[in-house]
Amino acid sequence: MRFRCRIISRGKAEGEVIVSRRLFSFLGDVDISTGVVVAEDSDIKGKSIANKVFVFPSGRGSTVGTYSLLRMKKIGTAPLAIINKETEVIIAVGAIIAGIPLVDKVEGDFYSCVRNGSRVIVDADSGYVELIQ
Fold first, then answer.
1. Buried b (16+ CB within 10 A) or exposed e, 14-30
2. What angle do CA 77, 71, 62 make, to 5 degrees?
3. Buried-most residue among 4, 63, 94, 107 (CB within 10 A)?
4. What is the pTM of this model?
5. Which among 55, 47, 45, 64 has a CA at the least distance from the CA of 13?
6. For residues 78 and 52, is the Cβ–Cβ distance under 8 A?
């Protein structure tokens, strides 16, 4: 199934999905050196977002999160792509400077269909997300 979306940071990625239903910050919610989520209040605590397509509603602050995401990209622990319900500025800037594809406002019932372990294609050049399985 293919879903239209808004493009925030261009690029393409394909991979396994990890979904959080909670707001997320790249400063403090994740161990930057491993990509493992460490936030006590996270619904994916202990799981890795490294090299996965990370789906979450929106960011929850801290401008340093922008640089945390860039650092993760440089050391190989960043997500392959990010899909938000509505992207906030800190996540947007981080993805843009790190070169990570980022989309939001995916149309249709994507957010209710996508699950941990699903595979997706994020085409943030053409403006769609494709749910493969």
1. ebebbbbeebbbbbbbb
2. 110
3. 94
4. 0.97
5. 55
6. no
By residue count, the chain amounts to 133
What span, in angstroms and rounded, lies between the C-alpha atoms of 129 and 133? Answer: 12
Q: How many whole angstroms separate alpha carbon 79 and alpha carbon 58?
A: 15
What pairs with residue 76 in β-bridges? none
Q: Which of 62, 68, 112, 118 is catalytic?
A: 62
62 is catalytic: yes
At 62, the pLDDT band (50, 70, 90 cuts) reads confident
**Contacts with 129 (C-beta within 8 Å, 6 or more apart), sequence order:** 2, 3, 5, 83, 103, 106, 110, 120, 121, 122, 123
Q: Are 79 and 56 in contact (CB under 8 A)?
A: no
